[in-house]
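2024-03-11 09:14:02 INFO queue: dequeued item dihydrouracil dehydrogenase (NAD(+)), len=461
2024-03-11 09:14:02 INFO validating residues
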Amino acid sequence: MSHSNSRATHGIAAGRLGAEELGCNFADVSPPLSADAAVVAADRCHYCYDAPCVAACPTGIDIPSFIRKIGNGNLKGAARDILSANPLGGMCSRVCPTEILCEGACVRNHQDGEPVRIGALQRHATDFQMAREAAGAEPLFKRTSETGRRVAVVGAGPAGLACAHTLALAGHAVTVFDAREKPGGLSEYGIAAYKTVDDFAQREVEWLLSVGGISIEQGKQLGRDLKLEALRETFDAVFIGIGLGGTQALRIEGEALEGVRDAVDFIAQLREARDLATLPVGRRVVVIGGGNTAIDATVQSRKLGAEHVTLAYRRGSAQMSATWAEQEFARTQGVTIVEWMKPLRIVGAGRVEAVEFERTALDANGALQGTGEIERIEADMVLKAIGQKLLPAGLEALQLTDGGVRIAVDADGATSLEGVWAGGDCAGHGATDLTVQAVQDGKLAARAIDRYLAAQAVKAA
Ligand code: SF4
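2024-03-11 09:14:37 INFO prediction written
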């Protein structure tokens, strides 16, 4: 990543790198396996009984079964194993932090220090099947006969799409309402571009919808264009998977200076840009936060041509929600990670010039405290990646939890309101913010809704 084509001398500017360099920088970070490499990778699997990799997968994919099928050349069967447990298995193979899930649990780690490449194999099988179906092959899944029941799904992110697909297969008619221009939620707007090249998020949505029985209405936001009560009256059940639409503020001086923005907006703008050379980026970028959004923002700033990119986190790397592999990847891309630094104020006259931090440490009770040592990092762009929050508009009738930041749900995603389920980041059952967990939430809620609708039909008979 050189900066030889840089045209701007200071501040935020577009076109720091030429088209060729940008093309290289934003190419697929983890290119697909060749057919031969997939067979070699599959051959390393021991097909463990009670496999720890399966237990570590939130969607419970039968990993040894699909790997065995890849080894035998049965890619369609492998895809069926994956997609029946996780309809967004293609996206998850690209974005899952496999190092702390299936691959982290693989017994091969203890033998030769290298797990079976489960994520890459999953991508190999799902890409194969999706490409076949796009070329006109018979679909893997078929809907059962129509039940005549209608379900509203609010939010076309991973939770909503998994829920809609599972309900549609069970014969229900699903209408998905989504606030943005395109479906996909975080898959479309919130993931680093180099993880999901070639418009994969939209290709996956097309595959999910090809099962039939699902219609999507874009530009419909709960609380603005939709009322929960009206949805309950019009539909037989409702699933809410709206994610976390609000961003947290730092609440420090200088936050309104030009050049300070939310990392989620930066990432979304990058994902939707037709020409990456039009995207403005600073020369000296400071990203505040410790999650995957923070990592994606730092790496993409570097890839756009920023010269100095610093990720600052108020605790240590062990407490970051970004995995060690993500942190290591950022370092290999030239990102400097500074730990135990709390932002005090953003300095500048109209435009950001620097961020002042106070060093932090844990006191004897384990509480985070400022040490009084002040550090200043020069910056012409500051990206805030300190988390997102639930937008409560339209949720007034629902019980919330965790101090009002999540919708209260049971293990199946049922909310406090009869006939309404919720899942993914907006719902709270102590789960993670992972795509794969959102998929599992949507799938489990869909099964619960299916049981509920069947019970309703029996009552009505
Ligand atoms: S733990 Fe590793 S070796 Fe065992 S079944 Fe899973 S992928 Fe194969």
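2024-03-11 09:14:37 INFO annotate: Confidence is low (pLDDT under 50) at residues 1-9.
2024-03-11 09:14:38 INFO item closed
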